[in-house]
Queue: 2 jobs
Job 1
Amino acid sequence: MVGPEEQNRSLLSSRRDAVASILMNLYVMAGALRMKKPIPRYLPSAAVARKRLLDQMEEAELETEEERVQQRPWQTGEKHRRWADVYRECYIPIYFLDYLN
């Protein structure tokens, strides 16, 4: 059985990547505004890093769900809300904008 500590460790690098890409973009934009220079054409994609994190979260939650069902098969009819679903619904408009570009 995978515990919460192992799940957190497995997601740590993806979380760092997502946060680092957002911070890098903000830092570059702040510097461009301060120096009145154009923003560079290519910046790290925060959307891609966030999508990787969401995909890994979904895999970890599905694995946990499978283990839970194996341990307690009488509770298979319950519908559990997963964090990956909640985050994905929050970013639906952003996914549409990503596909438009």
Job 2
Amino acid sequence: MCYIAIVGRQLLSELRRSPRIVCRVPLVLISEGAPVVGFTAVINRHGAMIVAAQQYKQGVHVEMQNQTTKESTPCRVIWCGGEERPGLFKMGLEMLESHPNFWGEDYPSDDSTNVGAQ
């Protein structure tokens, strides 16, 4: 049974749309109500696992603002991981629009990963 779980995780990581990078990026989330401060734990081209001062329910749409690049993009909460520490909640966000430069220098462009490859 453990073997199946390990193989399942390996296959899932191979099927991801883009690689994950462990990176802390300051964020502001905007939905209904006041802006909420947070930061990323893991990023990829299509979203992030974040930690924020407020928990949103799965399916809620939020505007995610990258405080480093000042870029903004609409997202949907696709996973709720509970309270990381008192007052900090883990969530998975999926970008609803393509935004290849949202992470700026924190996520290398496709061109920079192929430098020197022939």
